[in-house]
Design a protein that fits this description.
alpha+beta, globular, binds ligand NB4, 190 residues, single chain, binds nickel (II) ion, five-stranded antiparallel β-sheet
Length: 190
């Protein structure tokens, strides 16, 4: 099973590289690795397992974070409407996006970054993403709000981009026009 010792930390060049496409159909090895990545995320959200194996909680993981420079990532989370997103994706691609932007009120963190970096991480508010999922199906996902933010965080890792690259250095809590907050906490409460 994947544990924190397998996760590459910032400073490692693999996290700044543009990862390579995964040859389709994916090899048994690639599918096995993506399945393990999805299982890691589920384990990280399981209190007992997270405690036992000292896992940092996560909702996503990208292959470059394991030192594998391949275009694949996994996600496992529920959005505010209780809809579950739980799958692995090969060769994901944003095929369209909104001009409007959004950001998580609480900022972002990353399993490859062992420090808190305050500030708003500006991302597209709505995206359409195409990919091949773990079942080998070509999928087209229309995402907005929290799901759109999670998928963009993972996709960035495939392009060597870290969340803090989207924070305004001069004014980390600056809110440009055309940008709306994504407040999962309040949304969850309502
Ligand atoms: C990826 C996320 C950072 C921002 C937002 C959040 C957590 C991560 C990094 C967008 C994507 C990992 C991968 C969480 C988390 C809160 C809500 C409800 C119950 C578990 C869920 C956990 F753990 N980020 N950690 N960071 N990354 N929300 N939650 N909880 O996942 O570096 O590249 O289920
Ligand atoms: Ni990350």
């Amino acid at each position: 099973m994947i544990t924190m010792k397998d996760i590459v930390l910032e400073g490692d060049p693999v996290l700044m590289q543009v990862a390579k496409d995964v040859t389709m159909p994916p090899s048994k090895e690639d599918k096995e690795l993506l399945k393990k990545m999805l299982q890691f995320i589920k384990n990280s959200q399981d209190e007992e397992l997270a405690e036992k194996y000292n896992l940092r909680e996560g909702v996503g993981l990208a292959a470059p974070q394991l030192g594998v420079s391949k275009r694949m990532f996994a996600v496992h989370f529920e959005d505010v409407n209780g809809e579950t997103y739980s799958d692995g994706y090969f060769n994901p691609k944003i095929i369209s996006h909104s001009v409007e932007q959004t950001f998580l009120a609480g900022g972002e963190g990353c399993l490859s970054v062992e420090r808190d970096i305050p500030g708003y991480v500006h991302r597209y508010a709505r995206i359409t993403l195409s990919a091949t999922n773990l079942a080998g199906e070509k999928v087209k996902l229309r995402l907005r709000g929290y799901p759109a933010i999670v998928y963009q965080h993972e996709l960035d890792h495939l392009n060597g981009i870290m969340f803090y690259d989207h924070i305004n250095k001069q004014d980390p809590f600056n809110i440009p026009e055309n940008t709306k907050v994504c407040d999962i906490q309040s949304a969850i409460k309502d």
